[in-house]
């Protein structure tokens, strides 16, 4: 495909995802091949024994700037072995060499904090490749092409690439995915889905321009979303599909970015149950998703989960000011305690659920809950940044070490954890997480929109976290060269992209 | 010629070829080199769906597409529609689904489809006898599969199985094989203390009330509460650093409206102060960071009644967590300490 080479201005690489086809077929990624690189069970027993004193032979192997917090197993470990503890030990042992800075791949390249630099060029190359041609084994991605576009465009934007060169390709990708009855499906002839519509709207917002934005049939989108609203206040992901907080979050993102009326369309079934707007009963629905653990589940009554916690909190922050909407629905101290327990040491990264493993993608899902809940605690501030009411309540250092140390694949792309293959999903969300720890996000009283509805969602500002802000465990352990662009904490695209699609739509109101 | 093009049964259908955007002349993003078989089947799928054909041949077609790409959510929705329209045998569908589910463990769509099939009261007035056996087979492969647990939660509510002996027996068996299975603990909480059919579904009862009142039962079965607290204590004893039973116990006490201080003595077994002959603190022997957190919360609650010794104890516990037993959460522990020392509301539990 020489045409593509020309538009990218760089040499086309060979698509290197072949090994990933294992996951597409639904099988576990951990093949015998990756296992051969893992420590044996006997070395594991030595490392994880409940001893607090460092072993002699380990002292020398860590980079001197890496504190024991990130190189030693936790102070307490139960003797009882179960499947959960075995997987945890395995993960810990795979991460430790990367955290210590002693892995053979990273030796001479560490910065003064013992952290490897961001492989920016490799990740950029990886994401450019991910937008090209996939062999037949990737048929499992057929319904996820909107996501593939979004993840790559978002990741490239974070890495500082100008993605407007993809404008016409993005437009030609999404045109056949839009249905005349409203919304975008995963591909041509696929029914409209909240997730594909979310990915489509965000991708088009990022590339921007009249042609991209005007291809969205906003009126049809509004009517279609109206058919997803349920009597209990929640929103399904598609007609006939499941109802969960993804549906609620994606729908509110679309509605607020496209300035769609909050009133339900006249033919919406939910009107028969007395609901009048998209927001009717929505915060009550979300409040029913908080569990006894404090976290938030995908739908009422199931297990607390980091990705759903983000969807629910971001949705609440679109509905109004965080210090109002979040405490109205959630027991905040309980939520805070659960959220805080998602971060593990020595890995430094986040796990999505209690007793599950760290995974790079939660750097976004859990990581970006933090600015939201910190704003809920600290309150709305004047537009000019002052000292924060509530600082960072998690370890930015830990997340940074996990992402840069453990999640970077040698040839580009980022991954769940060492031993896993990279993919565009993990590349996008680990980078989003890295961006999140590099910026301080706060909520202000100055909105980009003068329209009262959803104005709070457009009132987020950020400043770069600088070296001079450092104190205690909150030090910047990344190099200035490794700064990423800032993303809007609710819309997960640049602030300017979110604000300009909103203003573009406001200037073209839908007729009543 | 492909399988459908050469089949007289499909002669009446004009397939709709794939438009992936290439026809605009601009190369679209993330294109896939589909096999000819997939391209043909999906072109017929688009055609029958556009005509809203709900037929036997369309049903066969959905199975064919699913066999090539089970993540194709559209084909699942369409399949459910056909099964309802043709009033197909639901047990046969479940049997077929069992095989597909075991083959594609991480698939989302399968479980929603199963729920849609199972939700027909006419066909399934009560729970089919083998259903829970199959779910246990799934859990043997992946005991924390979020989709399977979500489906099981739905089954409990749909068939009102909160007090079914099978439910608690399965949970006990899963916790016996892995006491750290937090999905099983969550399900147990829902069985014992979650909202029943007189309330909307939720993670806690009374979820529509003020957030601090969430989870509080209107009528408390104290025997059940004691039993569950006892259960949690036994499980904690086997692995004190397991967060799940500690959270569970907090949830149980919350439901009963009973204070955390009920467990002060129990928690103290895992945080033992070592004193010298003069009674001076020499060291603290700790077996569970969750016990420290528990004690911190107990003392923090006491400290609101202006007892400075309780406040000091709360801060001492939080410092243990911050400095040694859970230091990755240092900023959170500092925040808690600052709240207590400044006399602000302590974190509830």
From TrEMBL, chain A:
<dbReference type="InterPro" id="IPR001330">
    <property type="entry name" value="Prenyltrans"/>
</dbReference>
<dbReference type="InterPro" id="IPR008930">
    <property type="entry name" value="Terpenoid_cyclase/PrenylTrfase"/>
</dbReference>
<comment type="subunit">
    <text>Heterodimer of an alpha and a beta subunit.</text>
</comment>
<keyword id="KW-0862">Zinc</keyword>
<keyword id="KW-0637">Prenyltransferase</keyword>
<keyword id="KW-0677">Repeat</keyword>
<dbReference type="InterPro" id="IPR026872">
    <property type="entry name" value="FTB"/>
</dbReference>
<protein>
    <recommendedName>
        <fullName>Protein farnesyltransferase subunit beta</fullName>
        <ecNumber>2.5.1.58</ecNumber>
    </recommendedName>
</protein>
<dbReference type="InterPro" id="IPR045089">
    <property type="entry name" value="PGGT1B-like"/>
</dbReference>
<keyword id="KW-0808">Transferase</keyword>
<dbReference type="Pfam" id="PF00432">
    <property type="entry name" value="Prenyltrans"/>
</dbReference>
<comment type="similarity">
    <text>Belongs to the protein prenyltransferase subunit beta family.</text>
</comment>
<feature type="domain" description="Prenyltransferase alpha-alpha toroid">
    <location>
        <begin position="118"/>
        <end position="491"/>
    </location>
</feature>
<keyword id="KW-0479">Metal-binding</keyword>
<comment type="function">
    <text>Catalyzes the transfer of a farnesyl moiety from farnesyl diphosphate to a cysteine at the fourth position from the C-terminus of several proteins. The beta subunit is responsible for peptide-binding.</text>
</comment>
Automatic annotation (TrEMBL), chain B:
<keyword id="KW-0637">Prenyltransferase</keyword>
<dbReference type="Pfam" id="PF01239">
    <property type="entry name" value="PPTA"/>
</dbReference>
<comment type="similarity">
    <text>Belongs to the protein prenyltransferase subunit alpha family.</text>
</comment>
<dbReference type="InterPro" id="IPR002088">
    <property type="entry name" value="Prenyl_trans_a"/>
</dbReference>
<keyword id="KW-0808">Transferase</keyword>
<keyword id="KW-0677">Repeat</keyword>
<keyword id="KW-0460">Magnesium</keyword>
<protein>
    <recommendedName>
        <fullName>Protein farnesyltransferase/geranylgeranyltransferase type-1 subunit alpha</fullName>
        <ecNumber>2.5.1.58</ecNumber>
        <ecNumber>2.5.1.59</ecNumber>
    </recommendedName>
</protein>
